[in-house]
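To: structure subgroup
Subject: Chain for Friday's discussion

All,

I'm putting the inputs and outputs inline so they're searchable in the archive.
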Amino acid sequence: MNRFMLLRISHFFLISLAVGITGCGGGVDDAPDLYPVKGTIKKDGKAIQDVRVSLVPAEDGIPAVGVSGEDGSFELSNPKGGKGAQAGTYKVVLSVTTSEESYATGGDPNKAKLPFPKSYTSKTTTPKIFDVKEGDNVLEIVF
């Protein structure tokens, strides 16, 4: 086989491979519909900062996660890259985020005092359920 023919076959193979790979990933139409979820977390009327708020699907689905800021506000995002959550019923699960100082000072962030009841740390024990619906959703967590 001459070099020209080999080069044409190689180009055909590479183009076919590129088209095949591109077609396998799904498109924008395959992305789930997400609805904005914002809220605040407070204890005794004061904002709680650095709390990871997770919506874990009660059944099947994709979770959504956000972290509270200084004012206790959070906005949830989907791990697949979009802001918000799919419509459905979720269990609200909370955890504390760890800072570099926790590790730098030799502290164990897993033993940090929780600013919320321990029952909120697991899908099986959390008492809080939240329904995400079409449109804007507001999740208020108050202790």
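Points worth raising on Friday:
The chain has one domain: 33-142.
The longest strand covers residues 88-96.

D.
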